[in-house]
Design goal:
Layout (H helix, E strand, L loop, with lengths): L2 H19 L8 E6 L1 E2 L7 E2 L1 H14 L5 H4 L5 E8 L3 H13 L3 E5 L22 H9 L3 E4 L12 H19 L5 E3 L10 H9 L4 E7 L12 E5 L6 H9 L11 H11 L6
Parallel strand pairs: 1-4, 1-9, 2-3, 4-5, 5-6, 7-8, 8-9
Bound molecules: zinc ion.
Length: about 280
């Protein structure tokens, strides 16, 4: 499917969820935003710097920014997270987060720091931070979380490989950063990308919670600390869509994690069938 057709389908899905969201009141709970990179690269998961700044300015004024530690209990508010550990998280995102006093967590792929992700195509790959840059980010008040050693699709790995990717990642990060790592994020993050074994190993690794990429709000009475829901933000989101996502008017996008919707998303994203 072409990029343009894909954008049209995504826009139609958002409009449909938004129309329904106008008549259904938004649930109260934590909404955890999931970003990847902030910069100029032409990649769907990248948000342009001026748009990120506008989003954070709006969030500081109209939202209730909270830490991930508060979000894991379902406290009403909005937490900000980034996956993968791109260098632009330090150079572009962190100064803006600091300017508006917004707490954030960055999940790093610990075994790939200083290099690139295996699954980023060469023409759209972005540099990951080095360990020194991760420490610098931490010194700016950003919390660092774990995102495995190699960005493995955990559900397709044996238990021993999963243990390396999850517990081994925790030990390496503790060694490098000299403190326990509290939270973890499952690579890719849909319900098809991790399993019960992954959840158990995250607990064994000493983490206090784990983020998925399943869309939605974390309601206090039903919060699952080992698979927190998140709200993905990408370059196709206009400011109006961003506001609707934060305000819970697009919560029905959580239907995208159903079996049928996952199949559709696989076709849309051209992900291999065995995923
Ligand atoms: Zn990732």
């Amino acid at each position: 499917m072409s990029t343009r057709s894909k954008a049209i389908v995504k826009s139609a899905v958002k409009n449909l969820a938004s129309a329904a969201g106008c008549v259904i009141p938004a649930a109260s709970g934590s909404r955890i935003l999931m970003y990847h990179s902030v910069g100029r690269r032409e990649h769907e998961m990248n948000v342009r710097p001026e748009e990120f700044r506008e989003q954070m300015a709006w969030l500081a004024e109209h939202g209730t920014p909270i830490s991930l530690r508060d979000a894991m209990e379902g406290r009403p508010g909005v937490a900000v997270t980034f996956d993968d550990g791109y260098l632009d998280n330090l150079t572009e995102a962190a100064p803006v987060l600091n300017e508006f006093g917004i707490p954030a967590t960055v999940y790093v792929v610990a075994g790939r720091l200083g290099g690139f992700l295996d699954h980023d195509a060469p023409e759209e790959a972005a540099q990951l931070m080095t360990w020194d840059q991760v420490r610098e980010l931490e010194s700016m008040g950003i919390t660092i979380g774990a995102h495995t050693l190699t960005h493995a699709r955990l559900s397709k790995c044996s238990e021993s490989v999963q243990r390396d990717e999850i517990v081994g990642c925790a030990r390496l990060m503790e060694d490098q950063l000299q403190h326990p790592i509290e939270s973890f994020a499952y690579p890719f993050g849909t319900s098809a990308d991790y399993n019960e074994c992954s959840r158990g190993l995250v607990r064994d690794g000493g983490f206090r919670c784990a983020c998925s990429a399943r869309y939605g709000v974390n309601v206090p009475s039903r919060v699952d600390p080992w698979a927190l829901r998140r709200i993905w933000i990408d370059r196709t989101d206009s400011m109006a869509v961003f506001r609707r996502k934060v305000l819970g008017r697009l919560d029905l996008l959580n239907a995208l994690d159903s079996r049928l919707a996952l199949r559709f998303r696989r076709i849309l994203n051209r992900v291999p069938r065995d995923v």
